[in-house]
Amino acid sequence: MNWTELVGVHQSPRLFPPREETNGATFDFDEYSLEDNFTFADIAAELEDDGSRDKVFFIAPEKLPESDFQNLFEKLNQDQRDYIMHVADHFEKTPDKQLLHFLTGGAGVGKSLTITT
User: Fold this and answer.
1) What is the pLDDT of residue 116?
2) Mind listing the pLDDT tens digit for each residue in 23-38?
């Protein structure tokens, strides 16, 4: 049973020329063959550590003068101040432990100001 018999629709051969039956989908990749795409998409080779890379060191930013820090701190709301104090407390008490945080919020809520402070 074909599609038109199944749904009971009559298609004019002039508007809808008959399609050729195929066993499956055909794709014309031209110069973008699958083999080339897999070669370019394979990043495993780039991620492997062969020991030839230089070590990467984190260079800490310069410390803000106390007056600049106080000016920035005064612009923060209470939640932002609590967050800054939490981060500062972490680095004072456990400087060797890693601290991973994700700061999110809508536009204009002060994410950049909090990070800068």
Assistant:
1) 77
2) 555 555 555 555 555 5
DSSP label at residue 108: T
CB atoms within 10 A of CB 104: 6
Q: Say which residue the tokens 């800054």 belong to.
A: 84
CA distances for 9 relative to 4, 5, 40, angstroms: 5, 7, 46
Measured CA distances, 28 to 32, 35, 37 (Å) = 9, 14, 14
| d(C-alpha 47, C-alpha 81), whole Å | 39
pLDDT of residue 91: 86
Contact at 8 Å (CB) between 111 and 103?
yes
> What is the sign of the dihedral through the CA atoms of 103, 105, 111 and 114?
negative
- What are the residue ranges in the chain where pLDDT is below 50? 6-7, 11
